[in-house]
């Protein structure tokens, strides 16, 4: 039995796990659910030895357990099947299963291929998949690779005295239904050999395969339920938590959108990502897109800014069809993008605040012989004041700003470029409460000034609170659209019903 | 949850990448077909190409590039690069010339001298690796530095002059034959056999591929990254040293400029053979094919009557062509 | 609030630390000149110093082009071949076409630079391999043109080069040319969008791309500039040597890259500039001349440069930026 007690882990000051305690009993399948950013993946990585917790303890079969590396976790019989697959595609299946363990198959320094392969075949048999261990992993389908990963985890059996604990981090996200059924059947039949911890966004799956479910929210475990005694609806409620406070999202400041359509999509499609998406975005409107990972909303947002070319349908700006091949073309059409990865795609961190503010509109500070540094500085100072960016000077590198101030610099960049359409991709991720509310204020202000905003938010609360209109996506299609006027907002449960 | 819809969409995401299949396999054997095609074309243009004497000439001109290429192959499979070929080779050639019978001093170490020179070069390669791994400096920068340190050292040792290598045993590498082939060719084949064994049948060899495939994943599985890299650079150094010994034996002299132009042919051969600069793909057998392509090309250019001055240009275009063909344009990773 | 204060404090420390580090090459340069002067007072003579400065002009011209490539996050290993090719073109065309030789040589350099850029950006080939390949191509062309010989420039041709090796108002023209190149580099870096984008791309390419900048185009500009300046350096060399040869500049690649890195431009890109390269070039020249003054054999100088290069890279490298070092 694996017991985690009061685990804590933070990343650069932001707590990702807060006093998390869970138990995994022998032969049990434990489900783990929660919204994006609730801490599920962090917890899995702590259990797998990838992260060392700041505080808290683990114990295995009553003995205290300290994990400093994945190797130590393996030695204790804990294996993980990652969300993003972690096989080496350029090596054979057999080599992948025993990577790092080749010593067992070498004598006098010579690798015994037949023995390695037959051992690998034995592991593959456990998961009931018929794959030649000689084959390069790159030639396998995703489903077969997943099975190989499972076989790799099961191979730990021969190297530990403990019963296995296998962590499955979103294993179904790349599989077809038929493949998912096979995976679940295997998991059930392998209970004799191992316990499982199963993370998934698809709650019905979690209930179907698990014995017990932990529900996480904001880095903590908020509830524990027997799978037989709960329902998808109850899990939703627990994941979402407290009731919405209208004023937090400045709902009273929400003004109706204008009539002019600035951005519209007509049957927009990218095979494999989303299809037949249509919407209209008006001046001053905040349009929210809700959906789980894999629903296609990420791809849709990135299409609007030219990262991904669309295959079918039309995207129009101000009524004219456009086809962006790169972000530079979207910027020309007065579109701005505030990325989720603020530190990678939003800012050039080592550069000064002023250089970042003018990055998307360098022309605005050109005179005569070239770049006018005085003009750039005064422009930057203006934005720093208007958006209340707190920094020592406009020459400070953005690296040293707090998350909220960094986000305001990104916003200033687009405002200086006179963007009329802003695409906000998780704009409040990693911000503290104060910084969040400032961002909300700014969004309301911009919307009132006529800027159109497309929002994909971290939480449903945020989407509902801020938006005029909400599109809900599931499996690449728009399943619903809700009008969300100040006093007629849809509820989270209504949205979730269309999301999963 | 609507299972039917989910299945449909997932099929979409999974579809295009499902199998690399025949196309991937064809791409892997492309260099081999290119070699056959090239030989045929040259043979048709000038039938003398297929005469035994000419084929022996091709084999003979391939042996030093092969030994150098074998060393570089492991480095490139790691995903790194070694630009110090010419420097280390020069040090090897000059030291071996001074350790065996020569016209500069009274040393007379014979094969012992060749082994010492090779070991010294292994040490230089080890230093490459140690600086790269220890100080976390990109390998191309480290080896750019040691390239010139090596050439400078070789120049300094001889004070800019040339030393004649007089040892009959070493000279026999180039002058004497066994089954119609010079001993140097047999030595290169022995080096090939050993490196192929290392690549296929040792943990070290498999770890080189694992690191080249994805260093972070390999590290998570407990592959000793730093140790493997150190050994790869040391092995490369040893093979460059051996190449230096062979070059000195062939020319009958040691001098600092003996390695000039070797880096270019080495990297070209490895890359043209199908070993990807991104790491994890290819191997020593690919390098054999690559070296043969280069030798046949040069031989053919002479037979057909193309200016030898154009060799470097042809090599340069071959590099660009083969790297461009091998790079996965689907990935949006930043290329530096 | 407390966090903000702390962030401010580390900011101060960061800046003073960075400023200190940026000053190191200058301090080193002055210290080195004074030390050599103390050992050999004749070194501090105005003529010797002017000679060193004139000597630096070619190296600095080469290094200026490489600076932008390095800032943007790449490398150019073809400059020595391009410079040699340009010297060959000059030697062959000057006697016949006079001034017309200059644009041809420069155009050849630009063309190879643009080719580098396309191979790197369009075909996604790592810059060091693309430029290594084009270096071979340029060397081949030079070999074919010159038939592998050194081509001496005759009297007629030398007339067109006299201005380079002469003096203007008592100052060696080469020094003025060097200053002009520095001014051009400084203007590009400080007052053009190319200069701003270069630093930004080197420091965070993804964010620049996502700000709507055509990143590929800026990179091609950088390689074109590097090729063009290398060709210009080749004409300077041809003038000094009164000849062109396919190996004329082959010893200059390492000093040029060393000059960039020693000056404090990190090989990882995103920081540095022309001022630093100027200091770096002078440092390299002083070290070279100083070694001869102090009596280090010429043959050992490459060893010293190789080690300086590695040491300088190790000191300026931004290790936070690279997770897997290849």
Keywords:
heterotrimer, A: 500 residues, alpha/beta, 6-stranded mixed sheet, 17 helices, B: 336 residues, mainly alpha, two-stranded antiparallel ribbon, 14 helices, disordered N terminus
Describe the overall structure.
The complex is a heterotrimer of chains A (500), B (336) and C (326). With 500 residues, chain A is of the alpha/beta class. In chain A, the strands form six sheets. In chain A, strands 6-9-10-3-11-12 form a six-stranded mixed sheet, with helices on both faces. In chain A, strands 18-21-22-15-23-24 form a six-stranded mixed sheet, with helices on both faces. In chain B, the strands form two sheets. Chain B has a two-stranded antiparallel sheet. Chain B has a two-stranded antiparallel ribbon with strand order 2-3. In chain B, a hairpin with a 2-residue loop joins strand 2 (177-178) and strand 3 (181-182). In chain B, helix 12 (262-272) crosses helix 13 (284-304). Chain C is mainly α. Chain C has a two-stranded antiparallel ribbon with strand order 1-4. In chain C, strands 2-3 form a two-stranded antiparallel ribbon. The radius of gyration of chain C is 20 Å and the shape is globular. The chains are: A alpha/beta (500), B mainly alpha (336), C mainly alpha (326). Chains in contact: A-B, A-C, B-C.
Shape of chain A: globular
Q: What amount of the residues of chain C lies in strands?
A: under 5%
Could you give the order of the helices and strands of chain C? Answer: HHHHHEHEEHHHEHHH
Cα-based radius of gyration of chain A, to the nearest Å: 25 Å
Query: What assembly state would you assign to the polypeptide chains in this entry?
Result: heterotrimer
Helix content, binned percent of chain A: 25-40%
> What is the share of helical residues of chain C?
over 70%
Output the structural class of chain A: alpha/beta
> Which chain pair shows the most residues in contact?
B-C, 54 and 53 residues
**What about the largest sheet of chain C?**
2 strands, antiparallel
Strand line-up of the largest beta sheet of chain C: 1-4
Beginning-to-end CA distance, first to last residue of chain A: 33 Å
Number of strands of chain C: 4
Over all CA atoms, what is the radius of gyration of chain C? 20 Å
């Amino acid at each position: 039995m694996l017991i985690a007690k009061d685990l804590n882990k933070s990343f650069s000051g932001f707590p990702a796990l807060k006093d998390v305690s869970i138990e995994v009993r022998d032969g049990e399948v434990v489900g783990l659910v929660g919204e994006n950013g609730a801490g599920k993946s962090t917890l899995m990585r702590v259990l797998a030895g990838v992260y060392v917790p700041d505080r808290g303890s683990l114990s295995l079969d009553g003995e205290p357990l300290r994990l400093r590396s994945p190797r130590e976790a393996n030695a204790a019989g804990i294996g993980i099947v990652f969300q993003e697959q972690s096989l080496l595609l350029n090596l054979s299946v057999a080599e992948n299963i025993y990577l790092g363990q080749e010593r067992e198959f070498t004598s006098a320094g010579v690798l015994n291929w037949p023995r390695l392969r037959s051992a690998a075949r034995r592991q593959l048999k456990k998961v009931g998949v018929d794959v030649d261990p000689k084959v390069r992993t790159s030639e396998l389908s995703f489903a077969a690779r997943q099975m190989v990963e499972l076989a790799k985890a099961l191979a730990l059996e021969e190297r530990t005295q403990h019963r296995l604990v296998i962590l499955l981090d979103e294993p179904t996200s790349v599989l077809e239904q038929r493949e998912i059924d096979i995976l679940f059947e295997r998991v059930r039949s392998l209970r004799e050999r191992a316990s499982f911890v199963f993370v998934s966004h698809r709650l019905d799956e979690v209930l179907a395969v698990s014995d017990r479910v932990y529900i996480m929210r904001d880095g903590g475990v908020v509830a524990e339920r027997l799978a037989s005694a709960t329902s998808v609806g109850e899990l939703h409620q627990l994941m979402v938590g407290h009731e919405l406070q209208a004023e937090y999202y400045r709902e009273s400041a929400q003004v109706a959108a204008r009539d002019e359509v600035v951005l519209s999509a007509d049957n927009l499609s990218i095979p494999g990502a989303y299809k037949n998406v249509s919407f209209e975005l008006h001046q001053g409107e905040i349009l929210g897109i809700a959906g789980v990972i894999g629903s296609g909303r990420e791809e849709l947002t990135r299409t609007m800014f030219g990262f991904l070319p669309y295959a079918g349908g039309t995207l129009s700006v101000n009524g004219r069809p456009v086809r962006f091949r790169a972000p530079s073309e979207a910027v020309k059409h007065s579109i701005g993008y505030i990325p989720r990865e603020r530190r990678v795609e939003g800012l050039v961190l080592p550069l000064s605040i002023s250089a970042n503010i003018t990055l998307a509109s360098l022309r605005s500070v050109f005179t005569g012989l070239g770049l006018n540094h005085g003009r750039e500085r005064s422009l930057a100072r203006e934005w720093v004041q208007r958006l209340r960016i707190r920094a020592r000077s406009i020459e400070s590198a953005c690296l040293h700003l707090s998350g909220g101030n960094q986000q305001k610099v990104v916003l200033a960049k687009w405002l200086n470029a006179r963007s009329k359409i802003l695409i906000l991709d998780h704009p409040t991720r990693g911000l503290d409460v104060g910084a969040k509310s400032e961002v909300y204020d700014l969004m309301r202000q911009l919307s009132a000034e006529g800027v159109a905003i497309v929002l994909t938010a971290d939480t449903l609360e945020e989407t509902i609170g801020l938006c005029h209109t909400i599109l809900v996506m599931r499996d690449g299609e728009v399943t619903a659209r809700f009008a969300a006027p100040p006093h007629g907002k849809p509820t989270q449960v209504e949205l979730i019903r269309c999301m999963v | 949850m609507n299972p039917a819809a989910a299945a449909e969409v997932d099929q979409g995401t999974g579809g295009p990448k499902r199998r690399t299949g025949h196309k991937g396999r064809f791409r892997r054997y492309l260099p081999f077909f290119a070699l056959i095609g090239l030989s045929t074309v040259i043979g048709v243009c000038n039938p003398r190409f297929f005469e035994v004497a000419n084929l022996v000439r091709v084999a003979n001109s391939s042996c030093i590039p092969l030994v150098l290429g074998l060393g570089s192959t492991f480095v490139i499979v790691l995903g790194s690069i070694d630009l110090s070929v010419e420097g280390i080779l020069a040090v090897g050639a000059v030291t071996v010339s001074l350790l065996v019978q020569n016209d500069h001093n009274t040393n007379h170490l014979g094969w012992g001298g060749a082994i010492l020179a090779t070991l010294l070069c292994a040490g230089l390669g080890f230093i490459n690796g140690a600086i790269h791994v220890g100080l976390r400096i990109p390998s191309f920068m480290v080896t750019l530095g040691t390239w010139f340190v090596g050439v400078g050292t070789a120049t300094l040792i001889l004070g800019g002059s040339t030393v004649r290598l007089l040892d009959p045993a070493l000279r026999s590498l180039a002058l004497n034959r066994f089954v119609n082939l010079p001993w140097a060719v047999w030595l290169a084949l022995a080096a090939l056999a050993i490196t192929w064994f290392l690549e296929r049948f040792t943990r070290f060899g498999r770890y080189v591929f694992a690191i080249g495939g994805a260093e972070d994943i390999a590290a998570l599985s407990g592959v000793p990254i730093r140790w493997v890299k150190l050994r790869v650079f040391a092995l490369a150094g040893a093979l460059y040293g051996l190449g230096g010994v062979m070059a000195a034996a062939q020319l009958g002299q040691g001098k600092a400029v003996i390695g000039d132009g070797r880096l270019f042919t080495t990297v070209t051969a490895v890359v043209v053979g199908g070993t990807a600069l991104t790491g994890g793909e290819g191997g020593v057998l690919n390098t054999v094919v690559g070296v043969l392509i280069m030798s046949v090309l040069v031989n053919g250019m002479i037979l057909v009557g193309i200016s030898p001055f154009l060799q470097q240009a042809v090599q340069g275009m071959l590099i660009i062509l083969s790297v461009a063909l091998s790079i996965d344009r689907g990935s949006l990773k930043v290329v530096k | 609030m407390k966090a903000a204060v702390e962030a401010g404090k580390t900011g101060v420390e960061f800046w003073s630390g960075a400023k200190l580090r940026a000053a190191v090459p200058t301090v080193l340069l002055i210290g080195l000149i004074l030390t050599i002067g103390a050992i050999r007072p004749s070194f501090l003579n105005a003529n010797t110093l002017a000679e060193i400065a004139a000597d630096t002009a070619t190296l600095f011209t080469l290094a200026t082009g490489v600076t932008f490539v390095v800032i943007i996050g790449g490398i150019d290993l073809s400059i020595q071949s391009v410079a040699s090719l340009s010297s060959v073109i000059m030697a062959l065309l000057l006697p016949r076409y006079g001034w017309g030789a200059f644009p041809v040589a420069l155009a050849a350099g630009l063309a190879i630079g643009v080719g580098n850029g396309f191979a790197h950006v369009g075909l996604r080939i790592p810059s060091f391999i693309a430029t290594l390949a084009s270096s071979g191509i340029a060397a081949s062309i030079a070999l074919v043109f010159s038939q592998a010989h050194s081509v001496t420039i005759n009297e007629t041709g030398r007339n067109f080069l006299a201005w380079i090796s002469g003096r203007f108002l008592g100052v060696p023209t080469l020094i003025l040319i060097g200053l002009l190149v520095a001014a051009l580099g400084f203007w590009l870096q400080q007052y053009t969008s190319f200069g701003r984008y270069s630093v930004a791309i080197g420091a965070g390419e993804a964010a620049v791309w996502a700000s709507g900048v055509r990143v590929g185009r800026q990179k091609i500009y950088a390689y074109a500039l590097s090729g063009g300046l290398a060709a210009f350096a080749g004409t300077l060399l041809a003038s000094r040597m009164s000849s062109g040869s396919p190996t004329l500049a082959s010893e200059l690649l390492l000093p040029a890259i060393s000059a960039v890195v020693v000056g404090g431009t990190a090989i990882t890109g995103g920081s540095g500039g022309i001022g630093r390269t100027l200091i770096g070039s002078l440092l390299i020249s002083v070290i070279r001349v100083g070694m001869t003054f102090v009596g280090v054999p010429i043959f050992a100088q490459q060893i010293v440069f190789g080690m300086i290069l590695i040491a300088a890279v190790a000191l300026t490298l931004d290790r936070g930026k690279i997770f897997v070092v290849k």
